[in-house]
């Protein structure tokens, strides 16, 4: 696992991230990664095979009353042609170790309702449990 810290590395990783965050064009992705790094300490990690990015994870170390100090995984994606080859498991396991090194006591993530394969992976392969629902609402000018 390696951390991607430069705009050039983020740009290289964009095609993989685009498979998860389909609403983002490259310019928005680069802007948001830079903004999130400043605002919340967001970090982007990658696994490579033969020099090419095959899996990505975007994370933040955070503290709240519910989880204590924890690692929040905002994104976890494996390149579509590389799935079911253990890359997601390797990356998430590396993040578990890294989170412990950062003093985290939990790993927390949110996964879209329609992503049933991802849910099976988290629960069956990685030992995660469903602990809550996440609700969202767009803020308009009301």
From TrEMBL:
<protein>
    <submittedName>
        <fullName>GNAT superfamily N-acetyltransferase</fullName>
    </submittedName>
</protein>
<dbReference type="InterPro" id="IPR016181">
    <property type="entry name" value="Acyl_CoA_acyltransferase"/>
</dbReference>
<feature type="domain" description="N-acetyltransferase">
    <location>
        <begin position="1"/>
        <end position="142"/>
    </location>
</feature>
<dbReference type="Pfam" id="PF00583">
    <property type="entry name" value="Acetyltransf_1"/>
</dbReference>
<dbReference type="InterPro" id="IPR000182">
    <property type="entry name" value="GNAT_dom"/>
</dbReference>
């Amino acid at each position: 696992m390696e951390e991607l810290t430069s705009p050039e590395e983020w740009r290289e990783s964009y095609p993989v991230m685009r498979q998860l965050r389909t609403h983002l064009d490259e310019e928005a992705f680069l802007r948001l990664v830079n903004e999130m790094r400043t605002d919340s300490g967001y970090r982007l990690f990658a696994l490579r095979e033969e020099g090419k990015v095959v899996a990505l994870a975007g994370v933040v170390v955070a503290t709240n009353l519910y989880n204590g100090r924890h690692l929040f995984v905002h994104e976890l994606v494996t390149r579509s042609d590389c799935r079911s080859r253990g890359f997601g498991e390797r990356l998430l396991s590396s993040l578990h170790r890294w989170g412990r090194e950062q003093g985290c006591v939990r790993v927390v993530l949110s996964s879209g309702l329609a992503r049933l394969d991802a849910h099976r992976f988290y629960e069956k392969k990685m030992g995660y449990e469903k602990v809550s629902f996440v609700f969202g609402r767009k803020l308009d000018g009301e």
